[in-house]
Amino acid sequence: MSSASSRTPLPPFDPADPLGLDELLDAEDLAVRDTVRAWAADRVLPHIAEWYESGELPGVRELARELGAIGALGMSLTGYGCAGASAVQYGLACLELEAADSGIRSLVSVQGSLAMYAIHRFGSEEQKQRWLPGMAAGEIIGCFGLTEPDHGSDPASMRTYAKKDGTDWVLTGRKMWITNGSVAGVAVVWAQTDDGIRGFAVPTDSPGFSAPEIKHKWSLRASVTSELVLDEVRLPADAVLPEVTGLKGPLSCLSHARYGIVWGAMGAARASFDAAVDYAKTREQFGRPIGGFQLTQAKLADMAVELHKGVLLAHHLGRRMDAGRLRPEQVSFGKLNNVREAIEICRTARTILGANGISLEYPVMRHATNLESVLTYEGTVEMHQLVLGKALTGLDAFR
């Protein structure tokens, strides 16, 4: 008896999509992906090696406005000028942005998934109206102040403090490793108060606020990274985000941003894998392309398996988020796996390119060094392992 599969010709094998994952995407998904990919190809890829080498992101405000124009800022939020895109569409955008450079994806993630998300979810209507339309358009850049010089993985121990003075709040403290800090118009800052941890929408032109840029980075070089210094910054009563108290506020924002990283890391991996495939087909040794040797093909096969498994995992988590069923532990699963595998793909790609793998003429080493930051921020490997360990055993090993 013949089956439907035997009567229907199989589609050709696509080396760029070996699992046929594009069939999971509808026309709108593909349009979002292609729009972001085209923007990155036009505005980032021709310049990124120079930006990375110089350790600068020139024209960041113009880039933000362009990203706003294509709907990439706060794109999964609704209203206030936001695109209202699906979680999968946001993930596809993160993948394409990080395929250009992790620093560009970080700009978008911090803007949309941290700063805008915090205001959208926990802010007052007045705060939303004041900040979100300009942020969605890229006219206002936001940053997210949680990590401190002495408190990264343990934000509950933060020292930044907000005290009441009449009806005002007075903030004092420091935040560290803050993406977008020195170009931001608003900083979402988390601080201890007498009533627990609270979030504040801080205009960066407030007296006592400064954001010196951090230099001498060997990773995320094409990204603005700053310290935030709050020296008795006085804010009116309506600066506090009214709808949340405690760590659940910043942690829920981090979970949303980590979801974007699950996709984004696969963008860096894809760019490095594609560079390795192209190189293997054209680089000749011993009289033929190195892609014709068994060891090189074994590397490429293993890289392709992990790359597309990672994309499939990201897609699965995106569908769960769209259905309102994505748990934080599942985001940890994705972040832990995909960033770790992306780094390994980059390292293996470097071996295929040999000495050329360390040159900025190729994207591989740039992506590999960027991913070292992505591996650490928004939850280290160890923290996500412990999140999953607690979920699997019911036993808390954090302390």
What does the model show?
The structure is a single chain. The chain has 399 residues and is an alpha+beta fold. The protein folds into 3 domains: 21-136, Orthogonal Bundle (Butyryl-Coa Dehydrogenase, subunit A, domain 1); 142-239, Beta Barrel (Butyryl-CoA Dehydrogenase, subunit A, domain 2); 248-393, Butyryl-CoA Dehydrogenase, subunit A, domain 3. 50% of the residues lie in helices and 14% in strands. It has a 4-stranded antiparallel sheet, covered by helices on one side. A 3-stranded mixed sheet has the order 1-4-5, with helices on one face. Helix 8 (248-282) runs antiparallel to helix 11. The termini are far apart. The mean pLDDT is 96.
- What is the β-strand count? 9
pLDDT under 50 segments (min length 5)? Answer: none
Radius of gyration from CA coordinates: 22 Å
The fraction of residues in strands falls at 5-15%
The average pLDDT value, as a whole number, equals 96
Strand/helix succession: HHHHHHHEEEEEEEHEEHHHH
CATH architecture of the largest domain: Up-down Bundle
Q: Numbering strands along the chain, what is their spatial order in the largest sheet?
A: 2-3-7-6
Helix content: 40-55%
